[in-house]
Amino acid sequence: MNFLAILLFSASATCDSLIIGLSYGARKIKICFTSNLIVGLISCLGTMLGMYIGNIFNGFLIGSITQWIGSALLFLFGFYMFYQALYKQIKANSDVKIINDAADLAENFDKDHSKSIDIREACMLGLFLCLNNLGLGIGAALTGLNIYITSVTCLILSILFIEFGCRLTYNFLSYSTVKYAEYIASVIIMLLAIYQLFF
C-alpha cells in the first residue's frame, strides 16, 4: 500500500502538469522532450527538496508526533488546494472561463509567442509547477513516504502528464479534466493524510 500511497501522492502533486499539457494541446503549443524533461526534473527537485526539509524536521521530533504533524500538513495543503480550486470556479462564474483561464496561464510561459516552449521557458514553467511540490514534500516526508521513490515518481508522472495532455484531443474528457483535476487531487491528498495517520 505504501507504493500506492506514493503513486497517488505523486499524481496529485503533479496534476497541474496535466492541466498545462491539456492547455498546450488546446492552444497548439509544442513542448519538445528536452523541455518536458527539464520541467519534470525541476518538479522532481522541488519534491525532493521539500522531503529533505521534512526529514530534517523528522530528526528533531519524537515518535508519533512526526506522523501527526506530517498528516496535518498534508491535510492542510489538500484543503488549501480545494479552496483555491473552488475560489477560481466561483470567481470565473462559468465553466468556459475556467478552461480559458487555465489555457491563458499556460500560454503565459510562451514568452516569445513562438507556439513552442524552449529551454528557458521550460525552466520558468518548472519553477512555477514545483512550488506546490515543495510544501507537499515536507508533509509527505513526515508521514514516512520514501524520498527517492516519491521524487522519481513525480518526475515520471510530470513528463507523462504533459506529453499525454499535449497529445489528447481537446474534447469532453479533457474539458472535464481541467475543470475537476484540482478538486480530485486535493481530495486525494486529504484522504492520504488521514490514511498515513491511522494505517
UniProtKB/TrEMBL annotation:
Residue intervals passing through the bilayer: 6-25, 37-54, 60-83, 122-141, 147-168, 180-198
Keywords (A to Z) from UniProt: Cell membrane, Membrane, Transmembrane, Transmembrane helix
Domain of life: Bacteria
A Pfam family hit: Mntp
InterPro entries, per database record: Mntp/YtaF (IPR003810), Spore_YtaF (IPR014205)
Protein name: Sporulation membrane protein YtaF
Organism for this UniProt entry: Turicibacter bilis
